Model the fold of this input.
Amino acid sequence: MKALLVGSGGREHAIAEALKRSNAEVYAFMSSNNPGIAKISEKAKIGNLADVSEIARFAKSVKPDFAVIGPEMPLFAGVADRLERMGISCVGPVKELAKLETSKCFTRMLLQNYGVPGSPYFKVFSYKDDIRHVGKFLDEVGDFVIKPDGLTGGKGVKLFGEHLKDKKEAVAYCRELFSKKENVVIEEKLEGEEFSLQCLVDGEHVVSTPAVQDHKRAFAGDKGPNTGGMGSYSFPNHILPFIKESDVKNAHAITEKVLAALREETGQLYKGVMYGGFMVTKNGIKLIEYNARFGDPEAMNIFPLLETDFAEICKDIANGTLSSSKVRFAKKATVCKYIVPEGYPEKAKLGKIELPETAAKTYYASVEQKEGGLYTKGSRAVAFVGIADSIEEAERIAEDACSRVKGNVYHRSDIGTKELIEKRISHMKTLRKLKSVIR
Done:
């Protein structure tokens, strides 16, 4: 089979590798020349991931059996719409359904209108609203989070007490967003532990992949600015030690209800990935957000464990024949750690890097192969994934690889460590105990 892959990050390198294991021919449309994807691909083209016509021309030339769309931007641009009209089935929703990720207001109102549980207390504000209404709701909600409606690359969300010190700063931030004609969601600030649940969907059936925890903060101890994700881990039983099996089942059930609501709302079938960012709180599972594609770095935790033919899964998604009994993952632990340029995410210092020989799986992201070697490009550069029977051994493999990279880079050494995971477990024990005391 021929597969068209759209995207050029670490996530797409992991997808390309899975397709290659399925003996599919990979044809990649990338925004930059990822050396890992280029090596796997039969043919690659460099272009703008939002250029629907250019991607369509490339697809017409290679005649793929299906397409896998990696990042959010081509979904927002309507790449899946054009390819579907050309008769090319996509693992990735059409633009209207991708609003699940591209519009936070749409998703919150969808859950509310169809009685889907999991939303925090919230209110949606249009940029045309009187700013005084914002102030009144801030008084009512208590500790809060302000989210611009559209895509912000993970950098637009601001939390009370962290990014916004008081109500005055919050109102000023909303006024700034309104001036850009940006709608806003204001939500209660939740306390708990987050996990990612990436689900494969064919319009009717939902199949969960192993639960993963991502780490957005740049520095160890969850300090520093937010990033696209510095690393992530998963456990051999596919559940994280600070959450319960019932938490994952509840998150899965929310995704099933949202899928049905989308079909009811739009009359269309959502096909691809529904990746929910969930939080376990003292009051149960809450939905932080949905993404309409695989996570980066979370994709790099699940794809190396996938024992099922991924090309066949893609066919099942297209045909509406997806079944959990057909999708299997190895019972292994994974720890993914990204190396990033010094100064990232604010002022990355670019330069040459040298990668070690390693037992970890290596996924290229924001790097460029030049005549003199491998160079960073300004974002997360290379991910190393340790895979083993225990989380301790998986972490050791990933850390060993990261620590031996030569160049002006850093990484979060605490991801997947016993100390960090014990901290998560202790936090949830305290919250659950608090719930029982309140009862």
Notes: The chain has 14 helices and 24 strands.
